[in-house]
Amino acid sequence: MRTWKIAVLALGANLGDRAKTIEIAIEQLAAQKKIRVLERSPLVESVALTESGLDESLPSY
Asked: pTM of the full predicted structure?
C-alpha cells in the first residue's frame, strides 16, 4: 500500500529565461513515478537579497 506524503517546494531561478527554467523543473518533477504535482502558485519576481540587503543591481529572482 502506498502512503503519500505532502511536501511544499519552493523553486527559484535568476539567470536566463527564469520562467522556462522553473517550468522545466516542474515538468521533470512531475515525470517522476513517486511524485505528483497537485498545485502550483503563480510566479513571483523579487529583487536579489544578499548579506548586505536588497541589491537591485543583480538579476531578479
From this structure: 0.78
